[in-house]
Specification:
The complex is a heterodimer of chains A (123) and B (174). Helix content of chain A is 89%, strand content 0%. Chain A is built from four helices and no strands. Chain B is an all-alpha fold and 174 residues long. Chain B contains eight helices and no strands. The radius of gyration of chain B is 17 Å and the shape is globular. Classes of the chains: A mainly alpha (123), B mainly alpha (174). Chains A and B meet through helix 1 and helix 2 of A and helix 2, helix 3, helix 6 and helix 8 of B.
């Protein structure tokens, strides 16, 4: 026997009372509250978003003013980086190969795998 | 007919019509529970309304299971918050005397025997009887909702039901 069966008669009395409550006016009232909440949330999120966008827009003149300096620095870095990197990489690779020639074989195998995968991908 | 979890998932995705259907299905149970706990129809309906608004906000946290138990847990918490705002006794003292309801003028003079009988129980018994007998939660669910030990809930329900029956019988004889 379920525990609820011991007082099923009383439960039925309560259920009759509850089912007599009209559902529609209450449901309408709740859903109006839900819509109000939704609108308020949208207004808060929207206003915060606008405020953020305004702050970001206010920073643009400063960004443009410093653009020339940034552009020069980036161009210099991009021009010098490949030669520095390749020199360093060749040096490191030759040091590794001199210490243990097995590294060269591993690097060659890895390069072959990458080539094979990329060739199949294109096909 | 769509199941409660289906509707709840649709509501979590923002469907107001699915949530309205859930409100329509459970409003009787939740309003009845809130009215009986608060002892006033108007206050009970206010608590029930806040319950559903809180449920709408937290609907994405509903992780399946019995929707009734989930919504009743929210309702019970809203009832406790209402009590706190009323600056009344917060903790339920199992040995406490019967706490009389504050009767407002708009309440009906003639109350149903069932409601009168329920009001004559101690508060802890009333809470357990409302949750288990009127709302239909299992003893375990009621223990989860209230945070009381399962044995305490069981004994309150047992004594509450016995007292309720006696009161109803007396009322019928009178």
């Amino acid at each position: 026997m379920r525990e609820q069966d011991a007082y099923k008669d009383l439960s039925d009395l309560f259920r009759v009372e509850d089912s007599a409550l009209p559902a529609e006016p209450f449901t309408r009232q709740v859903m109006q509250g839900v819509s109000r909440q939704k609108m308020m949330r949208r207004a808060i999120v929207g206003s915060l978003g606008l405020a953020g966008a305004a702050i970001a827009a206010m920073q643009l003149p400063q960004l443009f003013a410093e653009w020339a300096g940034v552009d020069k620095t980036v161009t210099e870095v991009l021009a010098t980086a490949p030669s520095e990197l390749s020199t360093a990489a060749v040096n490191q690779l030759s040091t590794a190969a001199a210490n243990n020639p097995m590294w060269l074989a591993i690097a060659a195998g890895a390069a072959l795998c990458v080539f094979a995968v990329s060739a199949f991908e294109r096909a | 007919m769509r199941s409660d979890p289906d509707l709840a998932h649709a509501a979590a995705r923002g469907s107001e019509s699915a949530f309205a259907e859930l409100v329509r299905r459970h409003q009787g149970k939740v309003r009845g529970m809130a009215r009986r706990l608060a002892g006033s129809e108007a206050t009970g309906d206010d608590i029930a309304q806040v319950t559903f608004l809180t449920a709408w906000q937290k609907i994405s946290s509903y992780a399946g299971g019995t929707f009734s138990a989930w919504i009743c847990t929210i309702c019970f918490r809203e009832f406790l918050q209402w009590r706190r705002r009323q600056k009344m006794e917060i903790e339920f003292d199992e040995t406490a005397e019967i706490i009389p309801f504050d009767r407002s003028a708009d309440q009906h003079e003639m109350r149903m025997d069932l409601t009168r009988a329920l009001e004559s129980l101690s508060e802890a018994q009333r809470v357990c009887v409302v949750l288990c007998v009127s709302t239909g939660l299992t003893h375990q669910e009621a223990a989860d909702v209230t945070g009381w030990p399962l044995g305490t809930v069981k004994s309150h329900v047992q004594r509450g039901v016995a007292l309720l029956r006696t009161r109803l019988e007396n009322a019928n004889v009178a």
